[in-house]
Amino acid sequence: GVVITSIKVVSKGGGKVEFDEKSETGDKARFLKDVKETARDSKKIQATEIEAEEAKNLINSMGEIDEDTTPLFCVHGYNVQPHDVLKGMTSVLVAFAKAGHYYPIPVLWPCDSVDRWGPDKAGQYEWDQEVFSQQAGNVLRQFVDQIRDDTFPRKSLMMHSMGNHVVFNGACGANNAPGVQFENIFMVAAVSIMLLISPYLHNKRSALKTCPRLITLSCLDVPFDILHKNPNNSYIGSNGNVYANKEKKATNFFKMLARTKHGGPPKGKLYFLHCYDDWALWFSSYLNWEDRVGQRGIGKYKWTWNRRWYEDTSLVRNEIRGHYENYDCGGFINKMSDQSYKHSYEFDSFAIDFYNKKSKEIKPDA
Q: What is the pTM of this model?
């Protein structure tokens, strides 16, 4: 398949490039094909660099999809390394081929996995969140040069977990919106993945006693009010540099939705796939006192006295109202035996079906 990456690569001649999973952010975004591991023990990845036009032709030649194949750029979450993506992409491509229409293109950004601040790796997460996701967000803006609207007139974006943070707080944190538009934008499980504390997740009470600081750091990505009229912008210390200024970020984010001809309304929508039983979100709401988008979606609020959620679309900014949709995935996930943590469901069959259904609702000539 085809991937696009912001990870720094080393040229090996003849169009071949190589990079390490510990590599930092590169100078530009690159399309790659024939991506494979060269030495699993050292996590070396080899690939062939290609131009955007060739990437487009490869996608269009995927006859197992359909004649109107549309790329879906997929931004992964925290602590996801290239070999993790490669390992699962074969089955993911098959699933998308059965559903039709979308062709998934992984967006690889660097997630440092070097231990920081001791064995609990709490510093590792803070480093990724405050540094690498910001750097990746900056490079994500460079993707504009590779996925121009004239090269890919039809395309959509899917972000999972910390990938939401990379796009919303990173790429949309500048003064201007990224110069690229997508027909649909899917935000899935908008909170960081809990890989760091997975050994403790079998017992919530034990987790709270064993690693409270780590849990707190592992759930700080995208708050539930990012598209609200009056979002919370009060954060302590450096967190304000990462999570505040929601109004500006929301404006830039909404501009990434492709419009109909002559600057009309958006063709598609912002979709928020959420699951209240997501374990990462459970810890986030309990310890951080700020709920996540991936918990209940947009346009919701929670009463303090009974802790119950209620819907109020008037909370959402006027220009965004009517152009978003919440999708509760809890009923699907609870029926699946392999979703112990109920977080990594972005490529489950029901999610893929949902993406494709929403794509087919768009009129390409609108």
A: 0.85
